[in-house]
Amino acid sequence: MSKLPILPFPQKVIHSKGELKFSDKFVFSHSGIDDNEKEHLKNVLKIWNVNLSEKSYQGQEPFQVICLYNPDKISDPDKTVAAISDEFNTEMKDEGYILDINEHYVLLLAKTARGMFYAIQSLGFLVEASENQTLPCVKILDWPDLKMRGITDDISRGQVSTMENFKNIIRFLAKHKMNTYMIYIEDLFQFKSYPEIGKNRGALSAKECVELQNYSEKYHVEIIPIFQTLGHYEILLLHPEFIDLADFPGAGSLNVTSEKTYEFLKKTLDEIVPVFQSVYFHMGADESFDVGSGASRQKTDRFGIASVHARHYQRVLKIIEKYDKKIMMYGDIVLEHPTILNEIPKDLIMFDWHYDIQAKYESAEIFKKANQPFIVSAGCQNWSRFFPAIDDAKANIIQFTKDGYDNGALGSITSSWGDFGAANFRELNYYAYAFSAACSWNIHQIDYILFEVNFFKSFYGCDDPAVKSVYHHLSRASQYYEHIFLYAHPFYPIENDLKNLIYRANHLEPMADVVQKEILQLKKSVKKNADHLDFLQHSAELYAWTGKLSQLQLELLQNDKSAFDPDEKKYKAGVLTSRIENLVFELENIKKTFESLWLRTNRKDNLKIIMDLFDRIGLYLEIKLQEIKSGDFSFNGKMPAPFVSHPVINGENNSVVYARRRFYMEEKTNNAWIQIAADSDAEIWINEKKVGRVFSCRSLSAIAENERVKAWEVSDLITQGENIITIKVKNYRRNGNAAFNCWFEAVDVNVVLTSDCYWLVNKNCQEGWQKIDFDDRHWLNSVPIDNSWIMSRPYFSHNLPGRIEFFRKMLI
């Protein structure tokens, strides 16, 4: 393999003796190239600060030619071009190039503008790495293994790039010879027909999309939108305007039995499809797990889940067909129900995604045997992490890309996701992007060590070994500790799984100290992208803070001598309170740093999602601080009340449950709250007056997740004397049991009422069931339901509702 400092690694390299010494006496001759490529070449040579005289000549078509030569040594560059052009092979036709350097000239040869652009990029890597304006004598014959090479970029769940950041990403992809940038949109496009979609969420306008495409065209990067047409509508379907489009209230999937769904899709597709110039359009359609549960249940029972999906895909394709696009869609549902392959067009391109590490990705063979075009999509392993797990990402990317190549995949597109609010900065993804580029361009010549040397040298402009050390320290930690635990209740009762995690996290602080020292060293040696050190520094600070929190948790778990007085047989409150005070102070600084880094590259929209999480954790610590001062050292963050439902009788599911609870208030309250969580749709009344409704289901969206627990201040509904709370709860899923969790608290008079066995329940609606004087003697007592949800308790004295700890997903 070539040891040249070029990414991706070239296909064929022939080394010669000697080197070229460049100077401003060289002449710049060209044929068949446009001003765009000339501008790119000038940008590459800027680092040498040379001004070249320009000479244009005819001939050598259909090749595009650039020749930088010493006129004292070469009088006729045409002869040189003619001699080299015979080596151009058929694989190089679309995107390939020849870069030939000897002691007297630099020759770049390609048949397309894109091929010439890639030749210029390879020359750029050599120029960046050179000293004293010298280049090695070498001939490179290069072309890509896969046609489509790029990334998907999730803007739907939190971070939405500024226009300048979008352009930075495009330039990075182009430099590494990636030709595809796929923006995962969901509801982040401004629709004239539905102005509420994406409102206050940083949605892209049509004008911005056109601007980005015009910019990316100069860099030979094609922007392809990913717009959902079935699943992952959980945010949009919570909106009152669109709730009737859901398969059931709270679902993330559209109702495929309603014509309103197709009217909606036609309007949105007719707006968004024409905005994008690409011949490709991605219709999403992954993880449509809710289809067949609610309104579509009868249809799926009759025709089968596979056929219902296939018919929906066909209707979407029918809407788009007039735009003459090549349609892509995610392939997970197809792999789960492979008979769909018999009912969809053979030109529908499957997006085959797998993010786990496998010895072989057999799905590639499945699509090949079905004669269905497909693209493989590995993952950056960046989601829900302080820092990407780059070793896992490389293992996933290289094997999946190889299996895709071996089975005729059209391309390899690596995915980046922003689950749960996107606290994981996309600026940390560039390593994985570059590795993906290397694999999709030249899958058979991957050298891990050389890749890192080349990447770090190019990206940071230095070869300081501390760069590699920082990346690998942070990556190793991310393999077992995710940022989802940072935002969970820190004093939730700890069981074995989480206890083991805390033991491991106890080593994070010394690791972070090493990384922070190395970053200080790098600030003196890094010559490029120095601002990225701030993102690395922030990752280290988060690990350090998490390690300190884990130490506090361990002290409570283990009776640590530094915090426990064996003579008094109790904790030394002063030691623990001091630790908590420091944690609160440091967390506030981390929050400020996070906000600053977010605003560097992202729109302000959605920042509040993460800021609120920081505030919640800070408040949890403040509450524990006061509890410790009063002698309470317990892990008491768990919701003490269970979910309850109707008893299961004769094995029948409780799809609908009505519940009642009478209670007496001796005093009038001026500060009363009621909170409810439901599996999955609940309406609640107090004294026959509607309080509200909760119906959001579990998803990867922090916005939708935050709606799974709702709380209301209800003091104006509570009377002195007898009161009643009534709840109707429904579960739409097959074999699901309707259940709810309720917490009522009158803070000022110290009254707490929760879901327990004293609630009376019925499966049938009876007239007057919401009234206080309703005869409920024949109703049954509720029973607890174990639904494995990790739910933290509310603190209404601090105006803090509880939450379902979706950030503890590894424990569910």
What features would you describe in this structure?
There is one protein chain. By secondary structure, the chain is an alpha/beta fold. It has an eight-stranded parallel sheet with strand order 10-9-8-15-14-13-12-11. A seven-stranded mixed sheet has the order 1-7-5-6-4-2-3, with helices on both faces. Strands 22-21-24-19-27-28 form a six-stranded antiparallel sheet, with no helix packed on it. β21 and β22 form a beta hairpin. The protein is globular, with a radius of gyration of 31 Å.
What tags apply to this protein structure?
alpha/beta, globular, 8-stranded parallel beta sheet, 812 residues, 7-stranded mixed beta sheet
Tell me briefly what this model is.
With 812 residues, the protein is α/β, with parallel strands linked by helices. The protein has 21 helices and 31 strands. Strand 25 and strand 26 form a beta hairpin.
Write the layout of secondary structure elements.
Elements: E1 12-21, E2 27-31, H1 35-45, E3 53-56, E4 64-69, H2 77-85, E5 97-101, E6 105-110, H3 113-129, E7 134-142, E8 148-154, H4 163-175, E9 180-184, H5 206-218, E10 222-226, H6 259-272, E11 280-282, H7 297-303, H8 305-320, E12 326-330, H9 332-336, E13 349-353, H10 363-369, E14 374-377, H11 390-406, E15 411-416, H12 419-422, H13 430-441, H14 448-460, H15 465-478, H16 496-505, H17 508-525, H18 532-558, E16 564-565, E17 570-571, H19 573-601, H20 607-629, E18 643-645, E19 656-665, E20 672-679, E21 681-686, E22 689-694, H21 702-706, E23 709-713, E24 721-730, E25 739-746, E26 751-754, E27 760-762, E28 780-781, E29 783-785, E30 791-792, E31 803-804
